[in-house]
Amino acid sequence: MPFKAWRWDRLSLRNKLTIVNITLLTFGIVVAGIGTTLLLRPTLVSQTDSQLSVYASDPTQFLAADPSSRLITYDAIRIAPSTLYVAVLDAEGNVVVDNWGQWQRPQAIAPEVPSDAATRGSQTLFDIEDPLGATWRTITVPEGEYAADQVRGTLLIAAPLTSVNATMVNFLAIFFGFGLTVVIFGAALTRVLVSATLLPLRQVEATAMQFASGDYSQRLPAGTPNTEVGRLSRSLNTMLVRIDHAFDERTRTIAQMRRFVGDASHELRTPLVTVRGYAELYRMGALNDPEKVGQAMERIEKEALRMGGLVEDLLQLARLDETRELVKDVIDLEPIAEDAAMDAHATSKDRVVRALPVRIIQEPRDEPDVPGTATTGELPAPIDADVVPVGDAAAPEAAAARRAIWRRRPLPRPALRGFPIRRRGIEPSTDEAPEAEDDYGDVPAMVHANEDKVRQAISNLLGNAMRYTPEGSPLEVGVTVDLPNQLAIVDIIDHGEGIPPQIREKIFERFWRADTSRARETGGSGLGLSIVSAIMKAHDGEVDVFETPGGGATFRLKFPLLMSAPVDSASSTAPNS
């Protein structure tokens, strides 16, 4: 049994379907043949019985009776038709006279009449056999139930079943021939239909083999959507696309990892080589002058600080990669942007760092819009206290005042989109001043985020801008509230050389720098923008970069805007009781 099961398992699906279909077809034909045979023979025998019953009811219709008296005589029995066996039996069942010898047939092969045949009753049907084994269907007519002249005894009439048997043999031969033809034709048709049906599976097999051999561009042809093969092809194509993308991602990840390991090793090795070099100079006695020793210690300290910063950046990226949930709170982006602008000015006093007015976008826009530079590319003029040229002595007081005002502003509602919105710092026209309940100009850029990480992201971008733009070049920090898209946006705008489009996607990779020579003049480890990208992903946001109108680069941080639930205006404006 295990051997048969093993051989069955080794058969192809096409062969299995063909064998099963032929087996079922053959089984059906055999069952039909047996059923037909079992029904046909009784029907033919019943016809013979009916004919015998007719003969028994009026024997004179086939016996040569006296025409005048219509009485059966012994001579009439002797010349009865040769297709029948007719005999007269006495009370003991012995044959008195029959028609067997009249037709020159040996008496030895005459049908054998049982001894109780004369006592079986009127018109009783039963079977008898001759010495050759042939069966005869027999009926008896008792004495007195037929008209006879001097004939005494029970009349026995028998008909051979040879014709019935011949009919059955012919039927079985014809049925077997037709059945065999049907089985052969069914096998051929099944083979063709199964092969045609499974042809798409052959294509699936061929495509899978080519894909396994390394040709990841192979795809299955689209089949009929509502069929099993069509759904299988669609599912497999989806799987192949994902596997292809997974291989591409794996190749890209391996390349990035190799580059990351190489760059990290180089970045860590360089300060170590410097420290080791100064240590060897000191050990060899080359630093015998206190001034040289001081310079060497200063260089060792700078390289140690630089290496420590690199290690801190790597640890921070590793923590961000762990996808731990950050501790978040509701924060306002405007004061954070102002603080970052003031910190940047404190670091580089020769630059003008501006905190631009908060913009509110009410209509959807397709193109990136840089605050204050969308039209002319010129720096915007200060508007009261909302635009802060950082470095002014009054800037901290002005920023603190603005924060106090912002803390009193309510959170926006999704219904704000349908109302006119003013820009802060610009008073509404006196001719058509909107009502207080329709004035939603003060919409805060509130987000749910980790304040330390947000400050770090903005600080990294400002530091990157100061590092790669000419000295004295101005910088702007702008905050935008995009109501249609429910985004809070922070833009860091510089007016340097800009970033070529072909490398804008690469600059957020770890250790990637446009300066492939790793010159130390610009500083940095190549991890700052990677940290920014990781921080934005942790906040379900994104970072993008595009060209500043008039020249330069604009880095844009997009945070999900924190929107409050709808509030019933009647209940919210009703006076307190």
Automatic annotation (TrEMBL):
Residues 365-384 are annotated as: Disordered. GO terms for cellular component: plasma membrane. GO terms for molecular function: calcium ion binding; phosphorelay sensor kinase activity. SUPFAM superfamilies: ATPase domain of HSP90 chaperone/DNA topoisomerase II/histidine kinase, HAMP domain-like, Homodimeric domain of signal transducing histidine kinase. Its cofactor is a divalent metal cation. It is found in: Cell membrane. Residues 263-563 form the Histidine kinase domain. It is an enzyme of class 2 (transferase). The keyword Transferase applies. Keywords: Kinase, Membrane, Phosphoprotein, Transferase, Transmembrane, Transmembrane helix, Two-component regulatory system. Its EC number is 2.7.13.3. The keyword Isomerase does not apply. Gene3D superfamilies: 1.10.287.130, 6.10.340.10, Histidine kinase-like ATPase, C-terminal domain. Its main location: membrane. It catalyses: ATP + protein L-histidine = ADP + protein N-phospho-L-histidine. The chain crosses the membrane at residues 20-40, 171-194. Residues 195-248 form the HAMP domain. This is histidine kinase. It comes from Pseudoclavibacter terrae.
